[in-house]
């Protein structure tokens, strides 16, 4: 599998504003980078400020904390990528929270998969996010766009951290119903959740004290036990990779492309068995130009601004 190199040149200084703040707003954290004359000078993170995942009050507080660290002085542009940006109203709601921290700056909000494609050094192609949630987005040389997935955890998010966490719970409950002893995945999951019986997972899963971010973090139990050789965990990672490949293939077909397909997100960038299954799934569709992102999506901000200039 080809890896997107971290050698993509920054756009010419004349093509982007002097001071830019890039935001990558995920389901778990918000990362912000301040660029001055094309160079990153501040790089900080806070909790999620995605209004699809946290309350407006929590999002506002996390943004305030972040801008206290990377804001200040004149800012020309802010470009924020966030999951769940499906309509102009979604983008406007997030922009309204950002604008008070950067008076006079032009604020643009896009779906976070656009950051991923740009960070992979591609102006056309399909980007696939495998993190707390999952989605595929792409564009072709004619400017046509296509998207697959990204429906949220109740309707989809196949191959995501949340999906893996939920499937680990379902696996554990099925074993309990059959009267089987907890296997390695169930033991790891129980330890991660701080409970001592699979039956307690039911109430915990439906508790107001746990949310999709909490269960996405339980994906670590699947990844760790897969590394230890547990077959069910390997199967779950294989299914996740193939489900993500199907999302990518849908977008590729709609756009009439052959690639590249760029895989990112916390799971996509760091879990090799998932990457292998993703590649195999796309190869079945005749798609072989596949890259794994090796720098954070927020560093695609300058390329997007240069393309818009």
Protein described:
The protein has 309 residues and is of the alpha/beta class. The protein is 43% helix and 20% strand. It is built from 12 helices and 11 strands. A 6-stranded mixed β-sheet has the order 1-11-10-7-8-9, with helices on both faces. The protein has a 5-stranded mixed β-sheet with strand order 4-3-2-5-6, with helices on both faces. A hairpin with a 3-residue loop joins strand 7 and strand 8. Helix 4 packs across helix 8 and helix 8 crosses helix 9. The longest helix is centred in the C-terminal third of the chain and has 25 residues, at 231-255. The model is unreliable at 1-13 (pLDDT under 50).
Helix content: 40-55%
Category from helices, strands and their pairing:
alpha/beta
Query: Treating each run of at least 4 consecutive H or I residues as one helix, how many helices?
Result: 12
Proportion of β residues? Answer: 15-25%
Q: How far do the termini sit from each other?
A: 33 Å
Strand order of the largest sheet: 1-11-10-7-8-9
Largest sheet composition: 6 strands, mixed
Calculate Rg over CA atoms. 20 Å
Order of helices and strands: EEEEHEHEHEEEHHHHHHEHHEH
Anisotropy-based shape: globular
Low-confidence stretches: 1-13
Give the mean pLDDT.
Answer: 90
Number of strands: 11
